[in-house]
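Dear all,

This email documents one entry for the complex benchmark we are building for the journal club exercise. For each entry we list the sequence lines for every component of the assembly. Then comes the predicted three-dimensional structure of the complex as a token string, followed by one or two observations. Please use this as the template for your own entries, and keep the labels exactly as they appear.
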Amino acid sequence: MKRFFVLTAAVLLFATQVPAEAAMSAGEIVHRANLASYYGGDDGKAKVKMTITDSQGRKRIREFIILRRDETDGGDQKFYVYFRKPSDVRKMVFMVHKHVNGDDDRWLYLPKLDLVKRIAASDKRTSFVGSNFFYEDVSGRGENEDTHKLVQETDDHYVIENVPKDPATVEFASYKVWIRKKDFMPEKAEYTDKQGRVYRVVEALEIKEIQGIPTVTKSRVRDLNSGGETVSEFTGIRYNIGLKGSIFTERYLRRPPREARR
Amino acid sequence: MGASRFLSLAINRPRVVTAVMVVVSLVLAALMVRVKVDTDPENMLSPTERVRVFHNQMKKEFDLNDYVVLGVVNEKDPDGVFNPETLKKVHELTEFAKTLRDPDDPERRVIARNIIAPGTVDAIEQAGLGQVKFNWLMAEPPATRKEAARVRDLAMGNPLLKGTLVSEDGRAIGIYIPVSQKDFAATVRKALLKKIASFDNANGDQFHITGLPVAEDTFGEEMFIQMAISAPGAMICIFVLMFIFFRQVKMIIAPMIVAMMSVMCSMGLLIGSGFTLHIMSSMIPIFLMPIAVVDSIHILSEFFDSYQKIGDRKKTIEHVMDELFMPMLYTSLTSAAGFASLAVTPIPPVQAFGIFVAIGIMIAWLFTVTFVPAYIMMMKEESLADFGVAADAPDDHSFMARHLAWLGTITYRRAKLLLLATVAILGVAVYGISLININDNPVKWFTPKHPIRVADRVLNKHFGGTYEAYLVVEPESAVADTRAALLAAIDRLAAAGEVGKESAAAARKLASSVDGGADGYLARATAAFEEKLDQVPDAEYDDWALIADLPGEIKAQAQVFKRPDVLRYISKLQDYLASHAVVGKSNSLADVVKKVHKELFAGDPKHYTIPDTSGAVAECLISFQNSHKPDDLFHLVTPDYRKLNIWLQLKNGDNQDMEQVVSQVEQYFNDNPPPVKLKHEWAGLTYLNVVWQDKMVTGMLNSFLSSFAVVLVMMVILFRSFWWGLLSMVPLTVTIGFIYGVIGLVGKDYDMPVAVLSSLTLGMAVDFAIHFLERSRMVYKKTGSWKESVGQMFAEPARAITRNVIVIAIGFTPLLLAPLVPYQTVGVFLASIMAVSGIGTMFILPSLVTVFERFLFRKGKTETMEA
């Protein structure tokens, strides 16, 4: 997975100063970056505020609490997203069981319609609740879905170019990721379309150490085609809070646990 | 008087006069290189016009574009267009369209992200009970017929796509290609045609390209070709006819030069002063040329008839100019006044057209009275030797002369009968005028066989319609006092026991302390509540979580277009419009909500409804935003859910059809009061056309009435008699009545060129009357009897008028070959106007004079103007 900075990206990282080895393979760099951005701690929680700004400067807000629990480091994970804003979708829940081998399971709970919606395995490069982030940004893109190439190495960064193995399933032709050498945090990703133009940029605007874990606390996606962008700000980040596995079940969609509400 | 001063200069310094004219014309003509073409009918409205400002504001607010519509049709394949081969072409064309941009101007391009095509829209799919997925309708072209059929079924299952992207019969796919600027549309069309030419279409695939921006932009390109062919064609025709009348190439070159120089000067002035070359102004040469040659023909005709009698070119020209100077000045002034009156219309291109034709007429007059005599003076006397009718060859031998003489007798003997016939014709004309159909449609500016017209017919047969109009609806009242609403909401929570009394009291205090300034109160209250929420102990947390949501809930109440009752109302409006023939299809937020609601409930058609609470509507909408293109929602509603856009597809772009839809909507709003007070307004190119057309009709009527009044006053001054002045207005009144009566009777739509023709009629018809009456009075003075005068009038003066009529009427027939309808219209009507006003002048005026002879020639009524 090289889909970095996503909301979750922000959330966890297992700490880490990995000594920079010479001649690390591109695949290995990507793997470490994936761990750094999606697997901090054994579990974690953050309050996320997304500000979606369109090309006319009109803003929309999404606010939610995200809980994450790793089954195994670098392996399967579970996410629970509880919406607070806008107020008319309050209590809406989005849950993912991410499977490294095989399709993810996704659920959406719509309280006003009283509907638990199981989302079929489908395109993950669709919008996450109207923002410029994709679903895939939330749960991560499979490391094996692209071929990786180290195209540049600066004093501080590895620059990896990623080309999809199945171009028909994605809207990009390739994307480049700038990964910090010191902690393998991805700082920027640029997506190039079939005409060779960069049309989408994902950036970590702020990375802080929380409980000793480098964590993205502010990230941004810019859609250069539409002129819109989404900024995510992460507050109240905590790692290793002992989330129970039972929270991440269908039963809890209708009755959000206390951890999700506060 | 003026005539002699002009004349002496022209006669004594012919070369200087000529040189000055040529130099001035060339300098002004050089300005034409700065030409900027503007074929956008939108510019028929001033940029500050309210409806246009609104249209552009809505385009921006809803991110709407003008579309090039590319239709792919297959009538041959059993599966229509849904076969792998055709879909592969659809895919290729979509990908190709995405890449189109002007290499020199990044602002001119196809807006790739807003293309509507099978490859760029989402299918909202069912994947078993309780499961919904968003997938591209056609990410890649299908390999098998079975897969192709699946694409069809998915598209048909989405009411937003059916009738827009796919035709209901499955025989056509529409690709809607948005362009950033309308003037890029013709380029897009050409690029697509080139790409299409590379396909093998043996399987029966047809491709059609239309849409208003294509029609408008393509028209601009063809307009140039048209001008380059018709205007010179007309020149040649006039030249040939004049040669038949005068048999002297040297002589008739003069009027041609006058016409050409006048056109060069006026076009140079127009372009040089920064005006764009609009469809209206492109017609200036065509209007100006006949008017410019008219006076020269009068001079030549008179010269032609007098030269052999007088025998000296200088004396002849002095004699001719003496007789014609004042009539020519007045005819030019009246024609100019007729066109200048267009400046009172509220339509900028028509104003520019009127003013510059008026200027051109005065330039032509100046050139005529200076250059034509100068030109005659520069010719050797010997070369005039055989010019004109020899004095010993009586006039009445030629065909024309014999018939005119006969006509003269008729008008004298059968005056009352002729007048009766005129009144009868006018009666029929008035009936015809009552039938006039005011209508226009830029696509119909092309002839029926033009590919754009064909495309228009084929695609509107298959789809909901290629003409867009936008109905924008919003609540009448602004958001109410938000602080009072918030305090009331806190009280309600407390009263319902949902929050503790202490929390409620603290919340009231906090809400009251927040700055209540006009905007953003709720945002500030939200921030204050949330800060509090972060601080309160666990015991009070749930209270404050509820309280902190209140500002958002109040805000949500203001989101009128999430209300189920309002959406149902809108949905019914759409059903009402669909029940009438004009609107082929409409799309609104209500359709999105219904479609998503249905899919959330396992695709059950019973759930193709608006859910019962605004929270449930909000959940449908947020579900929709999980698609590839969540922003598509904001083409239909603003993010604050207080402004709604209903996208109407019309099958026909005729203004009449649009007007019908507008009145249906008014009817609906009147008969069905909405749940909240709503106001509505229109945008979209189809609607804009209606607005300017409306202004055109009333504007033209006003301008015609005012110029009629101005010309009448001028005539009264010219003839120093109210009755003679009134008399001179008779032929043009009859001509206009007749022409517009015929337009009504034959069912020709009253459109832009037809509207402008009233001014031309005024200018031309009054010319003949002035010449005829002024000369009549001169002759009467000499003869003292109308009976004798008639005989003389139907000699040379009548011949001049007849020659004018024939030259101009036939001279403009090349316009009939034009592939563009407005030019054909102008050609046909120019010829008819000339014929009718010429005939009218020669029949009606002498008949009237005959009947009212005693009254008109009372003592003191007969001085001529140049006294």
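Observations: DSSP finds five helices and 13 strands in chain A. The CA atoms of residues 1 and 144 of chain A lie 7 Å apart.
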